[in-house]
Design goal:
The complex is a heterodimer of chains A (about 300) and B (about 500). Chain A has about 300 residues and is of the alpha/beta class. Chain A has two domains: about 1-220, P-loop containing nucleotide triphosphate hydrolases (Rossmann fold, 3-Layer(aba) Sandwich); about 225-285, 2-Layer Sandwich (Alpha-Beta Plaits), CATH 3.30.70. In chain A, about 35% of the residues lie in helices and about 25% in strands. Chain A has helices at about 40-50, 70-75, 95-100, 110-120, 135-150, 165-180, 195-200, 220-225, 240-245, 265-275, 290-300; strands at about 1-10, 20-25, 30-35, 55-60, 65, 80, 155-160, 185-190, 205-210, 210-215, 230, 250-255, 255-260, 280-285. Chain A has a six-stranded mixed beta sheet, with helices on both faces. Chain A has a four-stranded antiparallel beta sheet with strand order 2-1-4-5. In chain A, a hairpin with a 2-residue loop joins strand 9 and strand 10 (about 210-215). In chain A, helix 3 (about 95-100) packs across helix 4 (about 110-120). Chain A is elongated, with a radius of gyration of 24 Å. Chain B is about 40% helix and about 25% strand. Chain B contains ten helices and 19 strands. Chain B has helices at about 5-10, 15-40, 285-320, 320-325, 330-365, 370-400, 405-430, 435-445, 450-460, 480-500, and strands spanning about 45-55, 55-65, 75-85, 100-105, 110-115, 120-130, 135-140, 145-150, 155-160, 165-170, 170-180, 195, 200, 215-220, 225-230, 235, 245-250, 260-270, 275. In chain B, strands 1, 2, 5, 7 and 9 form a five-stranded mixed beta sheet that branches. In chain B, strands 12, 13, 14, 17 and 18 form a five-stranded antiparallel beta sheet that branches. In chain B, strands 4-3-6-8 form a four-stranded antiparallel beta sheet, with no helix packed on it. In chain B, strand 10 and strand 11 (about 170-180) form a beta hairpin. The radius of gyration of chain B is 30 Å and the shape is elongated. Classes of the chains: A alpha/beta (about 300), B alpha+beta (about 500). Chains A and B meet through helix 2, strand 6 and helix 3 of A and helix 1 and helix 4 of B.
């Protein structure tokens, strides 16, 4: 479990804090999505949680261990996949993983064996001796994953982990993250790929300008969305649109009409349209996407 | 394995270490070249005496090094020519042909030659070779030859001056007096005394021949063929313009007569009251070599530290790869101190290797190695210079946070502090009248000069001026030097650590 308690980070020379009094909790067996615009404070929050940056105030507990005061113990409980690729580009893949394994007291022989397994698991078995500077963007991301998987910690900090991955890589990560959830691990996952996040996250935390706007779970997200009817009417005309406007906020683009917050059920709408002589090719209820929700949220925040 | 021990071992195996080894080898090569250039030869000074007895000249020759100590294994060849003076008593013997003799000095540095010829004046030319010291040149009275005079049987003829100023040691430029003296029939002197006085005479007049009419101070008994005395520091009165102080030394026989006397010139012109110092005679080969090597290593050791810090610590931090270590079970402070310890360890190994190499090379090329305490001090000073400069680079990287300024400032500091700083101090000393104390203190300012300052202090030789200086007399005592070294180690380290702990 990862808990951020009144976490604040101010950088020298900047008028506003990068992270401003954020409270966050990532429970065991949960994937918490972290969503925000660029510069919202997602990466800073994750870096503090990883023990890379120091908070100005507040604290982060990793399985009840303070990441600042009990750094060595807390770091054994987490792994971090950074957004960028901060590895020594001149290093070779296998020796670098063996080097990292040494910090966990893993004997050299065992470390080599484990590193080989991990490289094979992320599809880099042919690149054991390859220098990282020759790796493609996707290979680098896979190497980052292997680095995080060296030990099997309870908590995962994944910062824009899906960036730069091909569909196969995305599928691999999706499977890995879901497996982590099945193993009751706590996963903090930031991403700009909101559709993926929507599919993976149990809860989503929205941050904007360093502040936590809201944390919602799947059910809340569904409830919070605006119900809308999407109706395809091939012979649509002004009369049809006039009728739909009596049911709610209606607008049309070509043969497709949308009615927000309809006052009656969809089958009643279809029946009435048919009775009035219109052909209804398609009619179904939509809820707002995570993206729309997020944009509405930061619109309110402005 | 403990994560910090793991990191320590990893530092030793890094590519930065290879860079350090390359720099260390370069430093050794330049040091060796400088030792060769600064002290290409061991100068052997020859002294001799002769007496006539039993129908032959007995010639005793000493081959001495710069410190006045005997050097064995020197082969001396002598060519005796015909009579050179036919007017003296006893009457000239019949001409003799050229006669060649040779002798090799024993472990004490002496060689005896017996020349069975009638008593007369003979010209002698000499040459010498030394298998162990191939470039050694026998100088002094034996370098250009000498005359064997016809004297009374058993009367000792000293060849050259019995009173000499020599270095206190091969690696010390402090001078001492060496008295080369023999008793009747070539025996060791007994009962002779060395005395000194400091007459003041008007410039232009010849110095007093002896201490007659002057209060003489007893220096000590002359107890063997070679006797050594600290250079006497006799108080002198203040003198006016056109006056000069001399140090006059005289050998007084047991019967109170002055057997030999000589004067060394002292200060000329208006002088405050003080003490006479020995005449400046340059640096001993060891001192000269040490000065050069200290300057060489004052550049190469910090350069090695620069590479270690940049490749091993600064560059990974700038590239972000340190973050991938910080996320492991290590603390920020622990990682910082571990990397610092590895830096000190590696630099320590290199400094020891450099000084051991100098020690061995000096032994081969100069015939002597620096004393152990001397070498130990150089190791300490080299470590301070290299570590302190590395810490400054580390601190700079925490201040500037980007590669360009860190590299630029580091290279600038290295060039100015190491190569150009002595020039700056020398210019201020010679052109602008900076005092010796001010110059020494200024030289102590950058850590890159620390090795030179320690070497200069050990040698009593500042690198910017000729006269020997006792550093302690101008406030640069050993305690001050040690304290400055400690400050240079501690302050950048603690400041960089503080900034590292506050890192964003």
């Amino acid at each position: 479990m990862i808990v951020a308690d009144q976490l604040t980070k101010r950088f020298p020379g900047r008028p506003t804090p990068a992270v401003d009094d954020i409270d966050l909790e990532v429970r065991d067996g949960e994937i918490l999505g972290l969503v925000g615009l660029n510069g919202a404070g997602k990466t800073t929050t994750i870096r503090i949680a990883a023990g890379i940056s120091l908070p100005t105030s507040g604290k982060v507990l990793v399985d009840d261990l303070d990441i600042v005061r009990e750094k060595r113990a807390a770091s054994r409980h987490l792994a971090w996949v950074p957004e960028l690729f901060p590895f020594d580009a001149t290093a070779r893949a296998l020796p670098l993983l063996v080097y990292y394994a040494g910090f966990y007291g893993i004997p050299r022989r065992e470390a080599r064996s484990r590193a080989r397994e991990l490289l094979a698991r992320v599809g880099l078995q042919e690149e054991e001796r390859g220098r990282l500077r020759h790796f493609s963007q996707g290979m680098r991301k896979r190497f980052s994953l292997a680095s995080a998987m060296l030990v099997d910690p309870q908590n995962l900090l994944l910062d824009e982990i899906l960036n730069g991955l091909d569909p196969q890589g995305i599928a691999f990560v999706r499977g890995w993250v879901l497996e982590a959830r099945r193993q009751r691990k706590a996963v903090l996952l930031s991403s700009h790929q909101l559709a993926e996040l929507e599919a993976l996250a149990d809860r989503v935390a929205f941050v904007h300008r360093g502040r936590l706007l809201r944390t919602v779970d799947r059910a809340e997200l569904a409830r919070a969305g605006t119900p809308t009817l999407r109706i395809v009417i091939p012979n649509i005309d002004a009369a049809a649109l006039a009728y739909l406007a009596t049911l709610g906020d209606a607008h049309a683009e070509g043969p497709v009409a949308w009615v927000a917050r309809p006052k009656i059920e969809s089958h009643e709408v279809v029946a009435e349209l048919v009775r009035r002589g219109f052909h209804v090719a398609e009619c179904h209820r939509e809820t707002t996407s995570l993206e729309t929700y997020f944009l509405e949220l930061i619109g309110e925040a402005r | 394995m403990n994560p910090y021990l793991h990191e320590f071992v990893q530092r030793l195996r890094s590519r930065a270490t290879i860079g350090l080894i390359v720099v260390a080898l370069l430093g050794m090569a330049v040091s060796a070249a400088d030792v060769d250039q600064d002290a290409p030869a061991v100068v052997l000074t020859g002294s001799a005496f002769s007496y006539y007895q039993g129908g032959a000249y007995h010639l005793e020759i000493w081959a001495l090094d710069d410190t006045g100590h005997g050097v064995g294994g020197v082969r001396i060849e002598l060519a005796f020519s015909n009579v050179t003076n036919s007017t003296t008593f006893p009457p000239p013997p019949p001409p003799v042909p050229f006669l060649f003799l040779n002798a090799t000095t024993n472990a004490a540095g002496t060689a005896g030659v017996l020349l069975t010829v009638p008593p007369a004046h003979y010209g002698v030319t000499t040459s010498s070779t030394d298998a162990q010291l191939p470039q050694a040149a026998l100088q002094g009275v034996l370098s250009g030859g000498f005359e064997l005079a016809a004297g009374a049987p058993g009367q000792v003829q000293m060849i050259g001056s019995p009173l000499n100023v020599v270095f206190s040691g091969a690696f010390v430029s402090q001078e001492q007096l060496m008295v080369f003296w023999a008793g009747a029939n070539g025996g060791a002197p007994t009962g002779d005394e060395l005395e000194a006085c400091t007459p003041v005479v008007n410039s232009g007049y010849a110095p007093p021949f002896n201490c007659s009419g002057q209060p003489a101070v007893r220096i000590g008994p002359i107890a063997g063929y070679l006797s050594y005395f600290p250079y006497p520091a006799l108080a002198t009165p203040a003198i006016e313009a056109l006056q000069q102080v001399f140090l006059t030394l005289q050998i007084v026989a047991p019967n109170g007569t002055v057997a030999y006397a000589s004067s060394f010139s002292g200060p000329d012109g208006p002088q405050p009251a003080g003490v006479t110092g020995p005449p400046y005679q340059g640096d001993s080969p060891g001192v000269s070599a040490t000065t050069s090597v200290a300057q060489d290593l004052g550049f190469f050791l910090p350069l090695g530290g620069f590479l270690l810090v940049y490749w091993g610590t600064t560059r990974p931090r700038f590239s972000g790869s340190t973050d991938m270590v910080l996320v492991r079970p290590v603390t920020r402070r622990g990682l910082f101190l571990t990397r610092w310890a590895a830096l000190v360890f590696l630099l320590g190994l290199v400094v020891v290797a450099e000084i051991l190499f100098f020690d061995a090379f000096a032994s081969v090329r100069l015939g002597a190695s620096p004393p152990a305490t001397f070498a130990l001090a150089l190791v300490g000073a080299g470590l301070v210079a290299a570590v302190a400069f590395s810490e400054l680079i580390l601190l700079g990287s925490h201040v500037f946070r980007t590669t360009g300024p860190t590299l630029g400032i580091g290279i600038g500091l290295l060039l100015v502090g190491s190569l150009f700083w002595p020039v700056v101090v020398a210019l201020l000393y010679s052109l602008l009248g900076l005092t010796t104390a001010g110059a020494l203190q200024l030289q102590l300012l950058p850590p890159l000069q620390y090795l030179s300052v320690v070497a200069g202090s050990l040698n009593g030789r500042p690198i910017f001026a000729g006269p020997s200086t006792v550093y302690g007399s101008v406030g640069v005592t050993s305690a001050v030097i040690v304290a400055v070294g400690a400050i240079w180690i501690a302050v950048p380290l603690l400041t960089a650590l503080h900034r590292a702990m506050r890192r964003d």
